Structure formats: structure tokens, C-alpha cells
Write the C-alpha cells for this entry.
Amino acid sequence: MRNRMHHKNCIVLLIIILMIFAGCADKAKAEFRKGEESQKQYEYEGAVIVYDSLIGKYPDSPWVDSAKQEIEICKAILQQIDDAFEESSRLLKKGDFDEADAKIQQILTLKVSESVKIKVEQHRKDIADAKEVARRSSFDYVIKTVVGRMNKGASSKTALGDLKGTKIKWTAIPGTICMGLSGTPVAFKKGKWEFFGVPSYGLDKLKFLMFCEANEGKTVLVEGTLLSASDWPGTPLWVEVNRISRE
């Protein structure tokens, strides 16, 4: 009688264990399907979280190996996205606008979520805005605009117009130090044109003039702000120089 009861208890226990195992298997399967659904929506980060949860909760489940495989797939795509954003940002910082745009558009060749597409389009807008700022601060654009306005009758006080205060970064050659003009500007030569450069309050005037004298005839990098237009023929711009260095 006792042996029969013991045998019966073992069977019940086995049934309970099998039921628990079956319940865990069903839960693990449901968790995996949840991860798959996120993956189908290209929500790779969310899918990885779900798959990781499955592995943590049900380490002995037969779904664990599949979850690990899908995690690798998701992480590979996420890495491609991160790499494209990082490289595009690096190219943007260098001023390689077209290359930056081409790199970020590579993301759109992947299967990505709407949120990632929105992020890509915002990044492309940032690139386009930066490209426009660079175009408007280029020497050729500024010279063409200011000289064109003055040729149409604008005074030197108004010719710079909306370009006043624009940040510039131009390569040029230091030339004559104009001792007789206010602020003792240096005439920097750029192509067939020149522009006057005067040091800002934050730049030591004597060091600025000595640097320009020492590098006369050599190419330097001038960083500053557009100050005003000029009536001097061939030298139509005044620039407040914030920094000057050898190229």
C-alpha cells in the first residue's frame, strides 16, 4: 500500500514538473514571438531587450539559441546605423557636406523604423543647413554679393547688409600694414581681391601685426567676423580677426 502511494505521488510530481516545464516553454515561445514582432517593425533595440529577457528568465528553454541568433542580427544592424551616423558627423565637422549626406543616406538602404528615418532626415537637414552657412560665408559668395550691391549703388555702410556678423574662415596672404588707416588694418590678399583685417579686442594687436609682418607673402588662416564693406577699390571688405595661424 505504501509503495503504491509513493508511486502515485511520484507520478503526480512528474506531471506537475512537466506542466511547469510546458508552461515555461509556452512563455518562452510567447516572449520570442514578441521579440520577432519588434524585429519585424525594425525596432531592433526593443527586440534585443525582449530576447535578452527571454534568455535571463528561461535559460534552459529551446528558444534561447534562436534568441541569441536574432540578437546578433539586430546588433549588427544597429552597429551599421551607429557607424553611419558617426562617420557622417565626422565628415560634416570637416566640411565634407556631400560625403556626409551620402554616408547618412546609406542607412535608408537598410530596413529601419520610422523613428530612425526621421532621425536620418533631421541629420540631412543639419547637413544642408551647414552647407548653406558655409556657402554664404565663403569668400567668393561674400565678394560677389557685396561688390554686386555696391555696383548697384549701395553705400559701404549698407552693402554688407545681412552678411554683417557672419563668421568666416579664409586662407589669405598678409600684405601691407596700413598704418594710416583707423585700427591699423592689414590688407590680406586673396586671389585678385584684398580685404582689410583688424584684430578683435581679444587678439593682441602688436602680436597680430608682428605675425602678419613675419608671414608676409605666405598663406595663413584668418578666422573672424565680417565687420563692414569698404570704399577702397579692390579691397571691399573689413574683417574683425579673432584668430590667425599658419595653414
